[in-house]
# Entry
Amino acid sequence: MNAQARIHMVDAPTHPSLSSPILEVRDVHKVFGGVRALNGLSLSIAEGEVHCVLGPNGAGKSTFFKILMGTERPTTGKILYKGRDVTDLPAFKRARLGLSVKFQNIRVFADLTVFQNLFIPLRRHYSARQIPERVAVLLAQVSLDGSEHRLARELSHGQQQWLAIAMSMAFDPEILLLDEPTAGMSVEETDKTAAIIRQLNAQKTTIIVIEHDMGFIRDLCARTSVLHYGKLFAQGSFDEIAADADVRRIYLGTL
Ligand SMILES: Nc1ncnc2c1ncn2[C@@H]1O[C@H](COP(=O)(O)OP(=O)(O)O)[C@@H](O)[C@H]1O
Ligand SMILES: [Mg+2]
# Structure
């Protein structure tokens, strides 16, 4: 069977908000030099959902986020946000529309305090008087209450990831993209990260999360898309994806 032609749209047609998705990628190709990072990717995200993205290394997951955020432009194809074509919109304008991302590599300033790390993104939208209260709200959202004056480098790896999540929540985005948020985390930190994501989602943020950790994805209980060779390979509930023999085969490298 042609692996790349195999797509299950298991529960997509019945998802409540997919008739008008908040975010839609239509037949996106992205070529870097000779490398096809995305090869006809089409995918829709419903407003208010947590959506997990899985796939072997090199499947195009991080490139998918870069073209959603606008830090990379597709070679061909379209990106729609609330029905509006944003394909040519630069990243800072997409941020203003409500998109935010925490990329794969952590970006906290190790020698600054937690407060100072958050101050940097917040100062563009909030007055100096408003910032302490906003910092407190963000830290509570990521289980770092009361850590304002700690240096970022004194935080555990997991706590630094949560600080990076708080920084990407600074403008209260409608959609948050998280690229491998639990990489390198302990089991406890991973569990707590799932709780943080559920909590942010309960407060109305649509969240797309790229992950490898199967226990974590099971915990989130989210609709899951599998990318393979730069396109959608399978989609369904976590249980459907976990039970899929072909999905297992792409991880073993036999498809
Ligand atoms: N800036 C780039 N220049 C050249 N090749 C790239 C670049 N970014 C990604 N790629 C290639 O595109 C493919 C997909 O990469 P990526 O999206 O990072 O995959 P994933 O996140 O699923 O591991 C890989 O083969 C990678 O080497
Ligand atoms: Mg990646």
